[in-house]
């Protein structure tokens, strides 16, 4: 999976900036702080928040941004009065920050020129829906550490032993141990590898004849019930999240392409 870079995250937040609260110009020691500057600081804050939508359009955010900028301006003025801005290490850091700011705005310009189209969002939604599948299952399983133990459990169940009782006694899955090995409704695609492949072959009430291996261990698995898919979200509920994911992909591809074309050399190389 491609992770979002800092620049991408900030640019994505900037793209949503128009939805934020109405900031007003103010001054600090006679220095003007514009509405646009406040929106920029707010966008940066939103980009670093795991739930940005929860921070949109509220007076508390306005107050926090204003206070943050006041602190920046006051302390920056103090630093200049002390000559701190003339130190070599500080000048080098400022230069680095300038590059980051330019990168952020380059990404934002790219996003404005290359927006995610509705048809791309719908196509991604349809791919996700296909992966989820038309059916959901409710399974019962027992997870153990080795194949021999799993085979022995299958033999016991085939001879009449209670699946639920054996699950409570032997499974290593602590989440399902107290409910007889039951795992609640979900898509078979959620179960990766051999486990998912096996589940889709089983009918309602059927147990796999042999143990199934997963990265976590060996499983005795039975499909308790099957129904038409109900849990996969509707398009409108998923739309904006998919838009954001596709924007991330666009930005990462854009940055990656530019980096590939860069002339990067070891400074010590001749």
Describe this structure in words.
InterPro entries: PPIase_dom_sf (IPR046357), PPIase_PpiC (IPR000297), PrsA_foldase (IPR050245), Trigger_fact/SurA_dom_sf (IPR027304). It catalyses: [protein]-peptidylproline (omega=180) = [protein]-peptidylproline (omega=0). There is one protein chain. The chain has 10 helices and 6 strands; from the N terminus they run H-E-E-H-H-H-H-E-H-H-H-E-H-E-E-H. The chain is of the alpha+beta class and 270 residues long. It has 2 domains: 1-133 and 233-270, no CATH class; 134-228, Chitinase A, domain 3, CATH 3.10.50. It has a 4-stranded antiparallel sheet, sandwiched between helices. A two-stranded antiparallel ribbon has the order 1-2. Mean pLDDT is 88; it is low at 1-7, 16-20 and 52-57.
How many domains make up the 3D coordinates? 2
- Helix percentage range: 40-55%
Strand arrangement within the widest β-sheet reads: 4-3-6-5
Give the termini separation: 37 Å
Task: Draw up the topology in text.
Blueprint: H1 6-15, E1 26-28, E2 31-33, H2 35-47, H3 59-81, H4 88-113, H5 118-132, E3 135-144, H6 147-158, H7 163-170, H8 174-177, E4 182-186, H9 193-199, E5 212-214, E6 217-228, H10 235-260
Antiparallel strand pairs: 1-2, 3-4, 3-6, 5-6
Helix pairs in contact: 1-2, 1-4, 5-10
């Amino acid at each position: 999976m491609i992770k979002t870079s800092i620049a991408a995250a900030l640019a994505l937040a900037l793209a949503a900036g128009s939805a934020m609260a109405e900031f007003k110009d103010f001054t600090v020691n006679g220095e003007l702080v514009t509405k646009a500057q406040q929106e920029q600081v707010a966008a940066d804050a939103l980009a670093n928040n795991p739930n940005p939508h929860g921070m949109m359009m509220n007076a508390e955010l306005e107050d926090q941004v204003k206070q943050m900028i006041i602190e920046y301006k006051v302390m920056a003025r103090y630093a200049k009065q002390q000559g701190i801005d003339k130190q070599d290490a500080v000048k080098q850091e400022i230069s680095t920050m300038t590059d980051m700011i330019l990168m952020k705005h380059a990404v934002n310009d790219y996003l404005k020129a290359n927006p995610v189209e509705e048809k791309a969002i719908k196509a991604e939604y349809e791919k996700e829906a296909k992966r989820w599948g038309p059916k959901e299952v409710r399974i019962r399983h027992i997870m153990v550490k080795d194949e021999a133990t799993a085979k022995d459990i299958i033999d016991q169940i085939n001879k009449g032993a209670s699946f639920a009782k054996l699950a409570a006694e032997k499974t290593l899955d602590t989440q399902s141990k107290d409910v007889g090995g039951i795992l609640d409704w979900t898509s078979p695609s959620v179960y990766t590898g051999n486990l998912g492949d096996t589940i889709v072959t089983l009918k309602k009430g059927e147990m796999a004849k042999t143990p199934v291996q997963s990265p976590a261990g060996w499983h005795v698995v039975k499909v308790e019930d099957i129904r038409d898919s109900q849990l996969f979200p509707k398009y409108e509920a998923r739309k904006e999240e998919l838009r954001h994911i596709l924007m991330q992909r666009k930005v990462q591809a854009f940055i990656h392409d530019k980096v590939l074309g860069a002339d990067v050399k070891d400074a010590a190389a001749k």
